[in-house]
Structures are given as C-alpha cells and as structure tokens.
C-alpha cells in the first residue's frame, strides 16, 4: 500500500489561497469595510463503495469554498462562493458589503480581539496524503467485505467503503492574521447483515478513521468485527419497562459529552436556552470526573493551532473535580455574555475524558445486571430542560456477563441526573474521534419496552 503521494502541491495551493484571501481583504477595506475576514478551503477526496464484491460507486471529489465577512462598524455582511474566478470574488465582495450597509448595528459583532490571534504555528503532523488509486481502493473494499462475509451466519452485505481525503484551508482577517491548515482523514468501513426474513434480520457495522493510512487496523479485522457485532444482535428481545443501570459503549458515550457541550456553548447560553445556564463553578458531575481540552496533540482528530476566528488555541480544562470550569465560546457569544473567547469559535478541539482502571469487561462486571447500549436512535434530547429520551438497542447483562441482545426499547432520564449519577468511565477509549472517552456507566435510567 503506497501511503505518500508522489506529487504534493499542497503548499503551493495554500499559497494561492492565502494570496487570494489577503487580496480580498484589501479590496473589501477599499470598499469601505472597517474590518474583514476570509475563510477559504479546498477539499479533495476519493470514495469507493463495494457491495457483494462488485463496485457500486467511485467518487472523486474536489470541493472549494470561499466565504467573506465584512463589518461596517458593527454592521455585518457575509457572502460566499465556490467559484474562485476574479469576477465571482468581486461579486462576493460586492454582495457582502451591500448586506452590511443595510443590517442593524450589533454591539457584539466584529473580529476577535487582535491580541488573541495565534502567533506560533507548530507542525501538528496532520498531513498524511494517501496515494490511493481506484483499483487499490476497490481491492481494499473487497478485502474488508470478504472477511466479514466469510464468517458463518452472515447472509448479506450493505457494502464496504474506502475513503481518502485531504483538506486545505486558510483563514485571514484585517488584523493582519493569516493562518494556514492542511490535514488528511481516511476511513474504512463495512456494514453486514445476518439472519433471514423468517427468523429476523439484523444489521451492524464497524469502521476505522485515521489521519494516516498506516495507522489503520487490519482491514480484514474490520470486516470480522462488523460480522461479530451483527451476529451478536440475532434473536434480540424486547424488555419490560423497568429501572436499571445503563452502560453506554464508548462510541455512544461521546454523544453524552456532545449534549454537555451543547448546553455549555455560547449560543445556548446567551439565548438562555440551556439547562446548565449559570453553572460555571458548580458541580455537575462526580468529584473524580475531569475533561481537558488539548488542541495541540500531534496527529489527533481535533488538533488545531487556532480556532475559526484566528484565536490561539491552548490546553484548558473544561471540567475539574466534577465542576464546570468554563463555557465554550467564540468572540461573538463571549461578548453577548460579557465574557472573553475561549478559543472555541467553530467548536471544541481534542477533549480527553479522565478514565478509570476498568477495561470493557471490567465495566460489564461493574454494571452487574443492567443494560449495555450500543446504538441510540431519534432526537429526543432537550438542551433547554435536559430531558433525555432515545430509542436504543444493545444487550441485557446479568452478573457482569452479556445475556442476550435487546431492541425496540427507549431509555429515559434527565441529563442533569445522568451526569450526577455517573458511576465510572472505562479505559476502553474510542480514539476515532476528537472526543476521547471510554464507556460510561450511569447508575439508573428508565427503560421502556413491552
């Protein structure tokens, strides 16, 4: 497998984007803008889908984006284009300026503060082009799917996918800031089917996602893992309604952190639509719990030197000893709240959740008798009230051992209670995301079934 592209023009492409961004800012200022900022990007990729050994789709992508925001005092206008030709860029400048001239003043609008701009740009090892041609991608997809289909009991396939992606981006503003980023993200996945129409069918999947293709798990192992997960779901039962402890698998636990982030993010807070309003300095999780944001981890999925406004990112705790240390803010939401940006315009970077000593088997033993959740469905989560109610499937566990699969159930509680009643976090960390956490054991939830 060839892992390094023989021709890498990324630096020259970044130079062209940077020159275009800086020129656009100069032209916007000449048109009367007091401040201006540009985000420009080019994303290139190959995606191949294989099903039952045959090629279903081959997709080459090259997407471009160019967005300009101008400020006339505290009046804001934005426009964007995917066409980088001079006429289109000029039209984008004209449109953004026209919009700004007719909007109302917003005291919170404007660029992030100049003294918050990043000034150091270490190499975070995010650029690992994968010189993947179509034939090799097809062969990889077939290898993954064949490994899964070879497992006894697998009766069909939803197909495998092989994806290689490269992203270049530039952010510039009229403070004189110019930041360049380049990153790669590649993935392998497969979804398989077991059972038949008479006895019932089940579907499950597995995947891997990496910055560098050399870091993938064995492709055949992805197929086997998907097959094992699919077969384990056969003969699933429904549960009677009850109260029980619930263990969330690591890839599902991430969603619980996602709800927490939604509740402590600026937009929810200044709109006063969060159940964690005014909770900085208050305990919301057990005293042993901690989350740290670490944006500068080499080769990690969420690493970045600066945020979407050019503000330098820094290592900073989010939760210490169960206490919420800060909110998640860009400059606009910070001004609305009378606070300062936390360097999170555009979202969080790498979040590391403090884990306990138990691996997945240990977490099952700690669960004892209760529900292991491996899939959640639906949108039944309110960030305003904290009410949580989602469809789920997984496994009923008895005496620390998986007893049988379950499906067509609903799990419900309030997020405030779920966080307060977190029993343990496993060391079975799922590293395929910018949110790094193990499984979560919640003391008690309502399980609604038959």
TrEMBL record:
What are the Metalloprotease TldD/E N-terminal domain coordinates in residue numbering?
Answer: 36-100
- One of this protein's Pfam families, by short name? PmbA_TldD_3rd
Residues in Metalloprotease TldD/E central domain copies: 128-234
**What domain of life?**
Bacteria
Q: SUPFAM superfamilies under this entry?
A: Putative modulator of DNA gyrase, PmbA/TldD
User: What terms describe the molecular function in GO for this protein?
Assistant: metallopeptidase activity
Domain Metalloprotease TldD/E C-terminal residues, every copy = 242-449
The biological process GO terms on file are: proteolysis
What the entry lists under InterPro entries is as follows:
Metalloprtase-TldD/E_C, Metalloprtase-TldD/E_cen_dom, Metalloprtase-TldD/E_N, PmbA, TldD/PmbA_N, TldD/PmbA_sf
Which cellular component, as a GO term, is one annotated location?
cytosol
Keywords from the UniProt entry: Hydrolase, Metalloprotease, Protease
Record's family?
Answer: Belongs to the peptidase U62 family.
Q: What is this protein called?
A: Metalloprotease PmbA
Q: From which organism does this entry originate?
A: Luteibacter rhizovicinus DSM 16549
Lineage start: Bacteria, Pseudomonadati, Pseudomonadota, Gammaproteobacteria, Lysobacterales
Task: Report the gene name.
Answer: pmbA
